[in-house]
Amino acid sequence: MITATLERPQLSARLKLETNAQHERMHQLMEYGAPFSSPEAYTRFVAAQYLFQRDIEHLFKNAAVQKAVSDLHVRGRLEASLADLKDLGAEVPQDRLASADVAMPEALGWLYVSEGSTLGAAFLFKEAQASLGFSAAFGARNLAAYPEGRATVWRRFVAALDNDAIGNEQHDAIIAGANAAYDRFGELLTRYFGQA
Q: Which terms does the record give in the GO molecular function aspect (predicted)?
C-alpha cells in the first residue's frame, strides 16, 4: 500500500502565487506614473515610497515581528526615502499611519511586499541613475541595495517566512496582510502619480 504524503506548501510560494495580480498592478501603476520621466515625477514616487516605508517600519517595533524576522535592523528604507526627499528639495508628506492596527501574523505580509520591492528595485535603481543621474549617495538611496546585497537579505527573509514556527493556520492571514500592503502602496502611487 502506498501512502501519499502531502507536503506543506511553503508560505513564500503561496505569497508569490496568490499576490501575483497585485504585483502586476504595481508594474502597471509604475508604467502609468513614469517616475523616471522627470525629477518631478520621480519626487512623487519617492513621496509615496516614504509613506509606505513609514507604514512598514512602524511594524518593526512589534516584539512578535522582531522574533519572526531577527534582522530587522538591516531592513527598511524609511531613512533613505527621507534623505532622498531632502536631496530633491521636497516637503516630507504627511498621511495617516496605515499599519497602526496591523499585528502578527498579518505584519509578515506587509514585510513581504516591502522586501520584495527592495529585491525588485535593482532595475529601478539603474533607471534612476541612467535617466536622472541619481545615485546611492543622492536621490536614489531608497532604491539602492542593502549593504549585504539584495539577494542575501531576501533569502534570509524567505527562510524566516518558511520557518516551521509559522504554522499553516497563519498563512491565510499573512497573505491577507500582503494584499492589504499592496492595496496601500497602490493607493499611494495612484494618489501621487495623479498629482501631475
A: heme oxygenase (decyclizing) activity
Cβ atoms within 10 A of the Cβ of 109, count?
A: 25
Contact 160, 68 (CB under 8 A): yes
Question: Which CATH architecture group holds 11-193?
Answer: Up-down Bundle (1.20)
The pLDDT tens digits along the chain (196 residues) read 444 445 667 999 999 999 999 999 999 999 999 999 999 999 999 999 999 999 999 999 999 999 999 999 999 999 999 999 999 999 999 999 999 999 999 999 999 999 999 999 999 999 999 999 999 999 999 999 999 999 999 999 999 999 998 999 999 999 999 999 999 999 999 999 997 5
Which residues contact residue 21 at a Cβ distance below 8 angstroms, ignoring those fewer than 6 apart?
Answer: none
